[in-house]
C-alpha cells in the first residue's frame, strides 16, 4: 500500500501541477507502477472538468475556453513540449537518427508551431462541443478522456520500447505488466458496465489517439522517448474529446 501511495504521489508530481510535495522514492515508485497513470487522470480530469458544470448558464465558447484554461492549469503544459518537438521531427526529412536529432534541438520550427496550434485548438473546440451537452454528461466524457489518455501512456510504459537512453527508457525499463494490469482491468470492467455511453467511446478514442504517435515513433524513431510520451498524452486527449462529442451527437 505504501508503494502505491508513493507511486500516485509521484504521478501527481510528474503529470499535474498539484502541490503534492514529492518525496524520495516517489519517482522510482511511479515509473515502475504504470497503474498510477489513470488514477492521476481520474482526479486531475475531474477537477479540470469543473468549468463544464456551467454549460447550462454560459455560452459554449466561454465554457470551452474555461475548460481549455482549466486543463493546462491543472495538468500543466510540460507535455506540450513533446508536441512541439514531435511536430518538428514529423516534418523533417531524413532517417530515424536525423529525426531524433531534431527532437533534441531547442529551436522551434514551423512543425512545432503547427502541432501546438492544432492541439490547443483541438482541446478548445472539444470543450465547446462538451459545453453543448448536459453538464454532468460533459464532465463524464471529459474525465473518461483524461483517464483514457493516461491509460494509453501506461500502456506505452508497460509494453513500449525506448529509442534511446532518456526519460522514455526510465519508464519502459522500470514498468511491468503486473504493475499495469490492475488499472487496465478496472477501467475495462467499468467501461463495459456503461457501454455505449459517449464517455466510454471517448475513453476508447483517447487510448487510440495515444496509439497514433506511438505507432509513428516506432516506425520513424525506432522507439519511444519522453517527448513521445508527452505528445501522446496531448494527442490522446484531443482525439478522445472529439470522438466523445461525435458519439454524443450521433446518439
Automatic annotation (TrEMBL):
One GO-annotated biological process of the protein: cobalamin biosynthetic process
Residues spanning the membrane: 35-55, 61-80, 108-132, 138-162, 174-193, 199-217
Locations listed in the record: Cell membrane
Family annotation (Pfam families): CobS
GO CC entries: plasma membrane
Catalytic activity of the protein: alpha-ribazole 5'-phosphate + adenosylcob(III)inamide-GDP = adenosylcob(III)alamin 5'-phosphate + GMP + H(+); alpha-ribazole + adenosylcob(III)inamide-GDP = adenosylcob(III)alamin + GMP + H(+)
GO MF annotation, one: cobalamin 5'-phosphate synthase activity
Membrane topology (UniProt): Multi-pass membrane protein
Cofactor list: Mg(2+)
Pathway: Cofactor biosynthesis; adenosylcobalamin biosynthesis; adenosylcobalamin from cob(II)yrinate a,c-diamide: step 7/7
E.C. number: 2.7.8.26
GTP-binding is among the record's keywords: no
Keywords: Cell membrane, Cobalamin biosynthesis, Magnesium, Membrane, Transferase, Transmembrane, Transmembrane helix
Its job: Joins adenosylcobinamide-GDP and alpha-ribazole to generate adenosylcobalamin (Ado-cobalamin). Also synthesizes adenosylcobalamin 5'-phosphate from adenosylcobinamide-GDP and alpha-ribazole 5'-phosphate.
Family affiliation: Belongs to the CobS family.
Protein's name in the database: Adenosylcobinamide-GDP ribazoletransferase
Organism encoding this protein: Natrialba swarupiae
Gene giving rise to this polypeptide: cobS
Amino acid at each position: 500500500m505504501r508503494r502505491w501511495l508513493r507511486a500516485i504521489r509521484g504521478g501527481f508530481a510528474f503529470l499535474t501541477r498539484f502541490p503534492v510535495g514529492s518525496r524520495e522514492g516517489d519517482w522510482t515508485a511511479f515509473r515502475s507502477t504504470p497503474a498510477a497513470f489513470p488514477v492521476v487522470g481520474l482526479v486531475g480530469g475531474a477537477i479540470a472538468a469543473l468549468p463544464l458544470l456551467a454549460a447550462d448558464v454560459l455560452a459554449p465558447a466561454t465554457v470551452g475556453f474555461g475548460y481549455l484554461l482549466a486543463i493546462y492549469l491543472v495538468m500543466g503544459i510540460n507535455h506540450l513540449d513533446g508536441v512541439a518537438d514531435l511536430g518538428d521531427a514529423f516534418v523533417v526529412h531524413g532517417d530515424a537518427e536525423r529525426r531524433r536529432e531534431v527532437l533534441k534541438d531547442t529551436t522551434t520550427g514551423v512543425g512545432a508551431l503547427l502541432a501546438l496550434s492544432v492541439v490547443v485548438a483541438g482541446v478548445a473546440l472539444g470543450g465547446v462541443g462538451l459545453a453543448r451537452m448536459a453538464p454532468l454528461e460533459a464532465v463524464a466524457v471529459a474525465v473518461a478522456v483524461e483517464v483514457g489518455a493516461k491509460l494509453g501512456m501506461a500502456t506505452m510504459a508497460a509494453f513500449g520500447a525506448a529509442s534511446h537512453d532518456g526519460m522514455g527508457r526510465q519508464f519502459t525499463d522500470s514498468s511491468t505488466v503486473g504493475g499495469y494490469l490492475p488499472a487496465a482491468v478496472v477501467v475495462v470492467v467499468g467501461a463495459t458496465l456503461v457501454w455505449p455511453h459517449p464517455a466510454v467511446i471517448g475513453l476508447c478514442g483517447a487510448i487510440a489517439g495515444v496509439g497514433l504517435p506511438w505507432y509513428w515513433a516506432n516506425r520513424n524513431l525506432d522507439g519511444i522517448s519522453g517527448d513521445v510520451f508527452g505528445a501522446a498524452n496531448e494527442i490522446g486527449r484531443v482525439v478522445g474529446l472529439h470522438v466523445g462529442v461525435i458519439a454524443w451527437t450521433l446518439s
